[in-house]
Amino acid sequence: MAREGSKFDKLKLRFYSDNYRGVHSSQDIKIGEQILFVPKPLLITLEMAYASPIGRLMYEKGLRQRLISPKHSFLGTYIMQERRKEQSEFDTYLDILPKSVTEFPVFFSEEERKWLEGSKFLNQIKEKIEEIKKDYDMLCFEVPEYA
Length: 147
Known about the structure:
Elements: E1 11-17, E2 20-25, H1 46-51, H2 53-60, H3 63-66, H4 70-84, H5 91-96, H6 110-114, H7 120-142
Antiparallel strand pairs: 1-2
């Protein structure tokens, strides 16, 4: 299987549910054997995110140095912009992304979080939620178009 020079014929994507999937080998793999190759033009890069309409505004405001998670913020923003397009060169990739991310700990319900009481993980989730909120608030303040 190949697309525009990509190679992944020894891999298969297995869907366990709508939002849970994994990559598996489809045959034996030898030590040192290349199992995946994706040409750079098929990759979403930070440079592309910086050059996007909202990315440029974020970059000009110096958010690359001020955000807690700048790479995630720039790449996430780029993907959101691509999803809004009627047609994106990355539609194939965007179509396989989960439609929901409720399995991510930051989206756990109160009931699910109760199962984590007494663990350090619960504090890590709370800290990550605070960091995401700080980054989001800064983005919306500095770049109103982001909201």
